[in-house]
Amino acid sequence: MTMVDSLFGLIPAASTGQQWVALDLQLVNWGGYDGHHRVRLASTATLLSGGSGSGKSTLMDAYIALLMPHTTPFNGASNGGVVGRPRGKDQRNILSYARGKLDESRTEEGTRQRVLRGDGKDTWSAIAMTWADQSGTRFTAVRGWYVPSSARTLEDVTAVRATCETAFDLRDLEPAAAQRLARSAVAAAGLTCFDTDREFTARLHSTLGIGAAGDGGKAVALLGRIQAGQQITTVDALYKAMVLEEPDTFATADAVVEQFDKLTGTREQMITARQQVKALEPIREHRAAIEEAAARLRVVDAVGGFDDGTSPAALWRHERRLGLLRDVETDLQGRHREAQRLAAETSARIAAARTELDGVKQTLWASGGDRLATAQRELRGVGTRLDEVTRARARLEEVLTSTLGTSVTTLEEFTDLVARARHALADSDAKAGARQALFDAMSERKEASADLAVLRRDHDDARHRHDNIPGDLHATRAALAQAAGLAPEDLPFVAELVEVRTEHEPWRDAFNLALGGFATLLLIDIAHLQAFRRAIDTVRTGRRIRFEGVPTDLRDDVGMDGRTLPGRLDYRQSPFTGWLKGELASRFAYVCVDTPGELAQHEKALTRGGQVSEGRRGAHGGQGARNVLGFTNTRRLSDLERQVEVAEARLASAEARVEEAEAAWDRHDATLRAYTAVVELTWDQVDVAGVEAERDRWQFVVDEVTSGNPDVVRLQQRAVELEVLIQDLTEQLGRTKGAAGDLGERWSATTDAVDVAQGALDAAHDAGTQLDPEQRAYLEHVLGGGAADQPSGGAADQPGADARTDPSAALDAFDAVVSRAADLLRADRQAAQQTVATAREALRRTFETFVERWPDPNLGTDPDASYADYDRILTELQAQGLHELEAEWRKSLLRLSGNDLADLHSALSRSVREIKERIRPVNDILADLPFADDDHRLRIDARDTQSTVVARFRKELRELREVLSTEATDAERERRYHRMAKVIDRIRRTSPDFADLVDVRRHVRLSAEKVDLDGNHVALYDHIGEKSGGESQELVAFIVGAALRYQLGDAGAERPRYAPVFLDEALIKADARFTGRAIGAWRGLGFQLIIGAPNDKFSALEPHVDLKYVVLKDATGRSRTKPVAGVAQDAGTTRDGRGGTGRSGV
After folding, report:
1. Is 1123 within 8 Å of 1146 (Cβ atoms)?
2. For 6-40, b where at least 16 C-beta lie within 10 A, e where not — what string?
3. In whole angstroms, what is the distance from residue 787 CA to residue 817 CA?
4. Domain range for residue 210?
5. Which of 169-173, 214-218, 811-815, 1131-1135 has the lowest mean pLDDT?
6. Cα–Cα distance for residue pair 721/585, rounded to 1 Å
7. Ordered DSSP codes for 498-529
8. What are phi and psi of 336, to 5 degrees?
9. Cα–Cα dist 811/794, whole Å
10. What's the rounded Cα separation, in Å, for the pair 494 and 469?
11. SS3 for 805?
């Protein structure tokens, strides 16, 4: 592209389009710039350099305050780490700039700001910038603020947004400032005011040509990001941070979430409605129970009591009882006549049977019937005796066989057995011997069991210890130690501190005898002795124990002679070991000798048998005593195990002896019982053969009589039958006559009762008593039904008679119920009252639960007063609420699936495509700009990132959209809802997956590559940090500048319509050559640069700019600009004729 130098700097030669460049920037009371200041700007490049804090960024922020929305933070280049809301109280803001905040100080009233102006009085501030195009047209934008002394937030400030179609001097606003920047005063100064930021920025964008197709917001946002110039490490991050704004997928995802939340709200309403219906459904049942119980109470009160003869209850009783009495009267009358008839018939049958019996007996006696009768009688008696003798003989045989192993068949054998039995029963010595044998065996078992228990206890105790001290000594020591507040380990026995060496094991018994009681001496630190004595004085123990206070931690360097007792011991390390060795060496230095003859050769000597010699004295005996020496007890455990085995064998033998003795005792006892049974019998009682012979004799007589005259048997049987019949009929006749008499008496009494009941009923009617149907039905229900079901009683008691078939039983049942009528009515009253109370309480709980779950100040909880409200709610919910809510939920679900999810899926694909499409015009711009040299160009490349998370998410979107388009049951819809909820939760702004899934900028990886004129790849530019400072500045300039051309809407034009680009602390990382290349890139794209840089970067930037300023700050905190080159000396003259070297800056 051929560039020409013009009034506006280097521009494309073929360009004829309009371009706006900034002519100057004016400030009034802005930050450190106190009063009016004007900074003229070159149409090519202007440099503002100065020290840190001098006010460079303040000038840059003035441009931001004028042109950009309130969401753009101030001082973005210098304070990338600030927090809080942009332009909030924690950052630079309009108020702090208007008052010229210097710093803060802590006072008694709190934190106080130190400011250049506006401290306790009103002040005002204003910013203006004038632009010009090639035709000389001027356009000025102004922002002003009147700040009262009481202002704390921007809402307390009067703001001015205005434009002017020509140049404007901010000093002309001073009269308007005196009027608090009233709109009329501002308009009088020649400015056109705007009410809102939206109108103001729309005017700027349309006039200055900012943004394509009227969308200037994106272009201005990019200008702000360029001005902030934050450090970015990769081309991908650079392009996404500087060029790409928030994609449409954010808004689409938010819309999907919002729609789903509406769906969720509908679902919650539906669930709530269902829960409310479920909660209120029982109230109608409770209400019905209350009304029914209340009606019963009214009836109970109305019927009165049965004691009042004129009450409705008494009238009902009289009516019912009179009807029942008449039924009984009729029944008794019929039953009396039937009884009389049956009695006459039975008397006739008895007389006929007696006549026939007399004839049969006469015939029978004439045919030998008396002998037959005698034989049959005797035969029956013999049969009975035979059964008894047989049973007795069987019992005897069982006893003899099982116990004595014998049997008897003759009188002589039985007599001999009885004699032996009496002799055995008289022998008391045999019984005493068996008893004594059992006692001796049980005593031995008890003793063996006790010994075994002791040995096992000793063995268990030994397994948990490592010494050979007896258990009673251990217990005594533990008691004393506890009383003294010491541990048992602090009080060792001497025997616990020594062990016989393995090679001298045969001397163990001798050493035990020689040491004697010294081995069980309890040792205590002498420092604790007095306290120990005081503590144990009141302790009572069964075993006496000796103790001694000894010094501890003595040196363990006592020499031991291997021939003596102390030299043949091992010692456990303890605080007492030094003392113990010395004590043993001085008191028990016995020389171990093999024979008694050697005892006299030594002052102290000891034999293996345990004899000790001390000159003319000595000691011997006591062998077999228990070993107590050693801090290991392996030997004792082995001894105890052998003793336990012997004791177990002894116990097993004792158990066997007890079993044998018990068996012998049982056998002896059984024999005595058998002999006792024998001596109590006689032979006649068990002689089965004798009784059978007698039976046979009488049977022979019967056979003899019956064989000679067969009619005798028949006559005899007939006589028996007639006698039985006469007896039965006689008994029946007695019962029938008694029943007839009883029925007659009851009939007469019932007739009298009918008369009495009729009189009572007539008296009730005469008294005017009435019984309405409701009362009658109630009494029938409570009392009448119960009477019919009562069992019969009294005179009506007959087999199978009951109240349903027997009038007498029905009357008795009714009288029984009436006798309990008061209790029944009282119980029914109480039941009704309880029903009312229970139902009311249930209603109260239901109402309370309802308003607790769904608060409503218009709903009460009284069961009576509030029932209508809850019934109305239930009616409305049942009539239309649930159905409408469910239909709305289904409709929303389908709408979400058909529209929103589809939109989100499409937006994801479309946004990725738009990112790639937006790179194309940027590349078209870059294609005309030499990069590095005239033979190369820069090109931006976009590649899709391969993310399995995003792929699975988009697949889930497609599947869910397809599933939701089909019909489903309620259960399936519920499952679909929860599945969809999981998807929606992932695209919420608060979700950790939100950025990865919704921010499509992450779905594309951007890089830059250096290509030749034919488009062939030369080099890849991905990580900016890998390049030098100059190369990275040039790369950023090319990429961001081309993108800015696109955002400004000038991608197809020869130069941008809006030229100013502010770079705060940019182009400061390279030498003059590379800085020039970066500035050349910006200017080659047709932009006007205003660069802020620190003083140390002035030399690198100075050759490439046409206008230079130094920003200075004096001791009072006031800033000003001083021109270095490019501005005439009178360029900064103010309107009142004063030079520009003072507060106005230039």
Report:
1. yes
2. eebbbbbeebebebbbbbbbbbbbbbbbbbbbbbb
3. 6
4. 1-104+111-233+1048-1146
5. 1131-1135
6. 124
7. EEE-GGGGGGHHHHHHHHGGGGGPEEEEGGGH
8. -65, -45
9. 10
10. 10
11. coil
Question: With the CA atoms of 800, 803, 808 and 812 taken in that order, what torsion angle do they form, in degrees rounded to the nearest 10?
Answer: 120
For residue range 387-435, list pLDDT tens digits in order: 888 887 777 777 777 777 777 777 787 788 778 777 777 766 666 777 7
Alpha helices in 92-133 (DSSP H): 94-99
SS (H, E, C) 244-303: CCCCHHHHHHHHHHHHHHHHHHHHHHHHHHHHHHHHHCHHHHHHHHHHHHHHHHHHHHHH
Nearest alpha-carbon partner for 135 in 34, 319, 7: 7
> Looking at 576, 602, 632, which one is the last position of a domain?
632
Collect all residues with Cβ–Cβ distance below 8 Å to 105 and sequence separation of at least 6. 111, 112, 114
Give the chain's count of helices (H) and strands (E): 33, 26
Is 411 in a helix, a strand, or coil?
Answer: helix
Q: Are 1048 and 210 in contact (CB under 8 A)?
A: yes
- What one-character DSSP code corresponds to residue 801? -
We report the CATH number of the domain holding residue 132 as 3.40.50.300
Q: Could you give the CA distance from residue 942 to residue 935 in angstroms, rounded to a whole number?
A: 23
Q: Per residue in 929-960, pLDDT tens? A: 788 777 888 888 888 887 888 888 888 888 88
Q: Which amino acid is at 846?
A: T
Output DSSP code: residue 215. Answer: B
Query: Is residue 91 included in any domain, yes or no?
Result: yes
- Per DSSP, 1028 falls in state -
> Could you tell me if residue 343 is inside a domain?
no
Contact, 204 vs 214, CB < 8 A? no
Is pLDDT larger for residue 671 or for residue 200? 200
Residues in the chain: 1146
**In a domain? residue 546:** yes
Q: Is residue 884 part of a domain?
A: no
Which of 1113, 904, 1052, 1037 shows the shortest CA–CA distance to 259? Answer: 904
Q: What is the DSSP string of 563-624?
A: TBTGGGEEE--STTHHHHHHHHHHH--PEEESSGGGGGGSSEEEETTS-EEETTEEE---TT
Give 622's strand partners. none
Look up residue 1023 and give its DSSP letter.
Answer: B
User: Any idea which residue has 């007063």 for tokens?
Assistant: 865
Please name the residues in contact with 746: beta carbons below 8 A apart, sequence gap of 6 or more.
332, 795, 808
One-letter amino acid of 848 = E
The mean predicted confidence, pLDDT, of the chain is 79
Query: Taking 80 as the threshold, does the pLDDT of residue 724 lie above it?
Result: yes
Q: Residue 744 in contact with residue 340, Cβ under 8 Å?
A: no
Question: Can you state the percent helix, strand and coil of the chain, rounding each to 5?
Answer: 60, 15, 25
726-732: long-range contacts (C-beta < 8 A, 24 or more apart)?
726/350, 726/353, 726/354, 726/357, 729/346, 729/349, 729/350, 729/353, 730/350, 732/346
Number of domains in the chain: 2
CA dihedral 935, 940, 943, 944 (to 10 degrees): -170
In this structure, how many other beta carbons lie within 10 angstroms of the beta carbon of residue 920? Answer: 12
- Distance between CA 38 and CA 1141 in Å, rounded? 11
The stretch 548-552 carries a mean pLDDT of 93
> According to the model, what pLDDT value does residue 1145 have?
36
- pTM of whole model > 0.85? no
> Which of 284-288, 450-454, 1054-1058 has the largest mean confidence?
284-288
Place of tokens 């704390």: 152
Instruction: Give the residue from 599, 632, 665 where a domain finishes.
Output: 632
d(CA 323, CA 1125): 137
DSSP letters spanning 385-403: HHHHHHHHHHHHHHHIIII
**Burial letters for 987-1013: b for 16+ Cβ neighbours within 10 Å, e otherwise?**
bbeebeebeebbbbbbbbbbbbbbbee
Structure token pair of residue 228: 């902030």
